[in-house]
Every structure is written in structure tokens, then in C-alpha cells.
Design goal:
Layout: E1 5-8, H1 11-18, H2 27-38, E2 42-45, E3 50-51, E4 56-63, E5 66-73, E6 77-80, H3 87-98, E7 102-104, H4 112-120, H5 123-126, E8 132-134, H6 137-145, E9 150-154, E10 164-168, E11 173-178, E12 181-186, H7 187-198, E13 203-207, E14 213-214, E15 217-227, E16 233-234, E17 239-242, E18 257-260, H8 261-268, H9 273-295, E19 301-308, E20 314-320, H10 326-330, H11 334-356
Parallel strand pairs: 1-2, 1-6, 6-7
Antiparallel strand pairs: 3-4, 4-5, 8-13, 9-10, 9-13, 10-11, 11-12, 14-15, 15-16, 15-17, 15-19, 17-18, 19-20
Length: 365
């Protein structure tokens, strides 16, 4: 039997899930996988339950009737399913890593600019990254003057919050869209308007992509890429996020809707071209995962946002190290939805067996 593996969750998410309330994590799926395939050797917990000095934690293990609260040894392999903004829990995780605990997925990797810089060094990926740089007013001004449209996004953020689109209208005016509300303003007033919207947050400036459309609405793709039970990279499925209430944001939180990725791609690219587009998307996803793993060897569970332009070329928009997964449920892809939970759990079990045998593991691809 393998050593117990850990699933590290946000404390509020864990407590809500244990009470049966809806969250982004489905404890019922973790429980089924643990009981059916791992013999129950899994514990879910939050950072507040960790006692580093005693190498123990308070968490919950699956039983035939539900979840049981236990005090147990800290597992040798932990799948990190939470993003931290404060330093206190991060210090705990770094202390555990120094003591030999393996974290599947990076402890901290949230800065979009740092991620873009790492990916831009990979030939298989760099040609699929939209032109991106740190926001400066002079840079945006030059893009608009040359007739280019731009996206401005917070360097740290998620679910489409704070994103702004700027499109030149003529020599004097610019159309800006933020929070779903387009308006036309004078270029002479744009800088002050942006300062009010951005506040103290640091932003990225990115090339605006004209995305392929489904039923007249732009869509992009959520493409999960994970290591499986033998350590190989796989793409379990693809979901299309279609803009609905918003002019260009496809995020569910911004009113987008989820449909099977193949459905959207086949509508946008009829005939045999659709299969080629899907293969290019999958190849890009695996190339991105391998590049990230060169910097973070135990990265194993990512959700990529990939846009496809109207010529069928895939573009990497963003790398998420905590894929929220629910888009697959929304799209009715239940088998793929379950596999998104199973793959990283089984990879953690695979790693724990290697560690228990006293062997070392390093990615081969």
C-alpha cells in the first residue's frame, strides 16, 4: 500500500465542502477515487491544520460514510490546490519542502509576466505567445498610434477581473471596455481614465487577438494538461468558453458559457481543418507543460487558456496552476470532469510509491 497522499485546499473551500455546500472542489470525487483506487490513502486539509514542528496535520480522510477528522503524519506528496496571497501559509509550505515534502504544482507562481518570460524562451511555445510587456503609458500610446488594439490585464489576477480592452477609433478617440461596458473617450483623457481604473495594481500590456467565433461570439479554450499515473503529460479534454454578456471576455464569472471544445472548433473551422486545429491546440498545451516543468519539476496540473485566431492558429493566453475545472461540468463533459481530479491524484500516488522505495524521480520530458 502506498503512503497516504495529501490534497491541500483553501480553508474556507474545505469547510464549505465538508458541510455539503457548493464549492470549486468536489470532495465526493476525491472520496470515490480514494476508496475505489487508492484504498482510502488520501487526506484533505488546509494550511491551518499543519504543524510543521511535529510533522503532523489535522485533516479529513474518506470513509464509507463520508469524511472522518484525523490527526496524521504529513504525507510525503501533497497536491497543492490553493493560491495564497499572504505569506504565513507559504512559509509553512517552504519549511515542509526543505524537509523533503514534495508539492505537486509550484508553491507559488502567480505573476503572469514571470510566467510569460519563462515560456518565451521555448521555441515550441514562443511563436504562440501574444506580444506582451509590462504596461507603460508610452507603450500603449505607441500601439494605439500605429492602429493596434490592446488588452491590459493585472499581473496577478483571475476570472477576468480588471481586464481592459482599448481599440483605436480615429486619430482623436479610443474605445475602451472594462467590466463589460464599452465607451469612447478622447485619447487626451485616456491616461487619467486608466490610472483611475488600475489604481496601484501592476498591469501587463498585450496584443489583442481577433478570436474565432461560435454563433457570432468570440470564444477561447480551457485546455487542462496533466501528468497521469505514469508521469506522462496528457490533455484530458477541451472546453470552449464563449463570450455572451461581455464583448470579449469569455470567463464564466464574466457571463461566458461553456460548451465542448470540439463543438466550437468544428463550427468555426468546417471540414477537415477542425481536426488540424484541435491537434495544434493539444500540441501547444503539452509544449507549454513541458516548459513549465523545466522550471518547476513537480508541476503536474495546469489549466491553459488558449485562443484560436480566425486563421486557426492557437495562442497561449494564460497558464493557471489551479484549474477551477467547473467549466467541464458546465459543458456536460462529466467523464472528462472526473478525470481532471483523477489524473493528479494518481500521479501523486505514483510519486509516493517511488519515494517509499527510496528512489529519485525527475521528469523525462
Amino acid at each position: 500500500m502506498s503512503p497516504r497522499i495529501g490534497i491541500l485546499l483553501d480553508q474556507r473551500v474545505l469547510q464549505r465542502a465538508l458541510r455539503g455546500r457548493p464549492t470549486i472542489e468536489r470532495l465526493s470525487i476525491y472520496r470515490a477515487i480514494a476508496l475505489d483506487e487508492l484504498g482510502g490513502e488520501l487526506v484533505v486539509f488546509s494550511a491551518s491544520g499543519i504543524n510543521v514542528a511535529r510533522r503532523q496535520l489535522v485533516g479529513y480522510v474518506p470513509t464509507a460514510k463520508g469524511w472522518k477528522r484525523v490527526r496524521t503524519a504529513i504525507p510525503p506528496v501533497i497536491h497543492k490546490r490553493v493560491l495564497y496571497r499572504s505569506s504565513a501559509p507559504l512559509r509553512k509550505l517552504y519549511r515542509l519542502r526543505r524537509r523533503g515534502v514534495v508539492f505537486v504544482n509550484p508553491i507559488k507562481i502567480q505573476d503572469k509576466r514571470a510566467m510569460n518570460a519563462a515560456l518565451a524562451s521555448a521555441p515550441a511555445v514562443s511563436d504562440h505567445i501574444p506580444f506582451t510587456q509590462g504596461y507603460r503609458w508610452e507603450r500603449l500610446k505607441a500601439m494605439l498610434a500605429s492602429g493596434q488594439s490592446a488588452i491590459l490585464k493585472p499581473r496577478v489576477g483571475s476570472v477576468g477581473q480588471g481586464i481592459i480592452r482599448a481599440i483605436p477609433v480615429d486619430a482623436r478617440r479610443v474605445q475602451v471596455t472594462a467590466a463589460g461596458n464599452p465607451r469612447v473617450i478622447l485619447r487626451s483623457r485616456l491616461r487619467r481614465w486608466l490610472q483611475k481604473r488600475m489604481g496601484a495594481r501592476r498591469y501587463l500590456l498585450q496584443q489583442y487577438l481577433s478570436l474565432a467565433q461560435y454563433e457570432g461570439k468570440p470564444f477561447d479554450l480551457r485546455v487542462p494538461v496533466q501528468r497521469d499515473e505514469s508521469g506522462q503529460w496528457i490533455v484530458p479534454g477541451i472546453v470552449a468558453k464563449v463570450a455572451r454578456r461581455h464583448a470579449f471576455l469569455t470567463n464564466m464569472a464574466q457571463g461566458g458559457r461553456a460548451i465542448p471544445g470540439e463543438t466550437a472548433i468544428k463550427a468555426a473551422f468546417p471540414g477537415s481543418e477542425a481536426a488540424d486545429v484541435i491537434e495544434r491546440v493539444r500540441s501547444l498545451a503539452v509544449a507549454v507543460a513541458r516548459t513549465v516543468a523545466r522550471h518547476h519539476p513537480f508541476a503536474a496540473d495546469m489549466g491553459l487558456d488558449i485562443g484560436v485566431d480566425q486563421r486557426g492558429k492557437p495562442w497561449l493566453i494564460e497558464v493557471n496552476t489551479r484549474d477551477q475545472r467547473y467549466t467541464f461540468h458546465e459543458a456536460g463533459l462529466d467523464d472528462e470532469f472526473r478525470s481532471l481530479y483523477r489524473n493528479p491524484v494518481m500521479f501523486c500516488a505514483y510519486l509516493s510509491r517511488i519515494i517509499a522505495a527510496g528512489k529519485d524521480w525527475r521528469p523525462q520530458d
